Each structure stands twice: as structure tokens, then as C-alpha cells.
């Protein structure tokens, strides 16, 4: 009799343990089909909240070190300043500089946009092994900086190089 009462009371007042086991018998798998390489997204949490990033390597199933769906991203920490024709060439060059960052970001903390940005050669530069050592990370940042500044100078993807206004 006590087991029958326990069973009835279980359904009358759902507990967290019962909910967890009955709703998700196994770990849910995420498939974010729109978070592909080159997709521009906005970081919504943390130090870089509000900054634009481009996805370099999505990891839908996670990894051993990061056991959650995440992406390797490269973004702009400091956007280029406004440039006018009256400025000297040296001042224009200084104001056209970009400060990049590279980061592993949880899918829950990025908001994808409709824009894409093709940065050739960054996939091989920024990998999971890049984050292991500081010198590798700095080298990867320099490469990302060069690629982003070249893209900015070409005049393409103007929206990516402007800070969000809110």
C-alpha cells in the first residue's frame, strides 16, 4: 500500500527529480543549422556583450573540455573610428585600426544575425589548440586583426564594423 500512495503523491506534486527523468531520458542534442561558419552574431553575455563576432568553428555537440554546444568566434573588441576626407593619411590609418578578440562562446550567449562574413584562412588559424598557450593565442589574434582590417579597408560588410547603438 505505501508504494501505491507514493506513486499517487508523485503525480500529485511533481518533484524536480521526476520531471528531469521523465522529460529528458537522455541528454538533448542541439542542431543549430543556421550557426554555420561565417555567420555574424552578437554576444549577449559577459565581457564582450553587445560586440559583433563571426563564427569560425561551430561545435554542435560540444567537446570534452567544453561539454555544451559552443562556437569558436572572432570579434571586434574596439571598432574603427569615423574617418573623413579632411584627415591626413596617417590619422586615417590610425583611426582605421581594429582590436580583435577570439573566444569560445556558448550557443545560449550569442544571437545570430542575417549577415555573413567570409574570412578566408581563419579556420586553420583559430582552433581549440590555439587557446592552450598564450603565444599561440596572440599570434591568432594578430592574424585575425590583419584579416579584419583588410576587410574594413575594402569597404565591404560595413555593418559589421560599426558598433551597436542601443
Automatic annotation (TrEMBL):
Top-rank taxon, per record: Eukaryota
MF GO annotations: structural constituent of ribosome
GO CC field: ribonucleoprotein complex; ribosome
Record keywords: Ribonucleoprotein, Ribosomal protein
CDD domains to which the protein is assigned, alphabetical: KOW_RPL27
Coiled coil: none
Pfam families from the UniProt entry: Ribosomal_L27e (PF01777)
Any one GO BP annotation for this protein: translation
Gene3D superfamilies membership: 2.30.30.770
SUPFAM superfamilies: Translation proteins SH3-like domain
Similarity annotation: Belongs to the eukaryotic ribosomal protein eL27 family.
Protein name in the entry: 60S ribosomal protein L27
Amino acid at each position: 500500500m505505501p508504494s501505491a500512495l507514493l506513486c499517487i503523491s508523485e503525480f500529485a506534486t511533481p518533484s524536480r527529480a521526476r520531471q528531469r527523468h521523465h522529460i529528458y531520458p537522455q541528454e538533448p542534442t542541439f542542431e543549430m543549422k543556421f550557426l554555420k561558419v561565417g555567420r555574424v552574431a552578437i554576444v549577449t553575455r559577459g565581457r564582450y556583450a553587445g560586440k559583433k563576432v563571426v563564427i569560425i568553428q561551430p561545435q554542435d555537440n560540444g567537446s570534452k573540455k567544453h561539454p555544451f554546444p559552443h562556437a569558436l568566434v572572432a570579434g571586434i573588441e574596439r571598432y574603427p573610428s569615423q574617418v573623413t576626407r579632411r584627415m591626413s593619411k596617417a590619422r586615417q590609418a590610425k583611426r582605421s585600426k581594429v582590436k580583435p578578440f577570439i573566444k569560445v562562446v556558448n550557443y545560449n550567449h550569442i544571437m545570430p544575425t542575417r549577415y555573413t562574413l567570409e574570412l578566408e584562412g581563419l579556420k586553420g588559424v583559430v582552433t581549440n589548440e590555439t587557446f592552450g598557450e598564450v603565444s599561440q593565442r596572440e599570434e591568432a589574434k594578430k592574424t585575425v586583426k590583419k584579416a579584419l582590417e583588410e576587410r574594413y579597408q575594402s569597404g565591404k560588410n560595413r555593418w559589421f564594423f560599426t558598433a551597436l547603438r542601443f
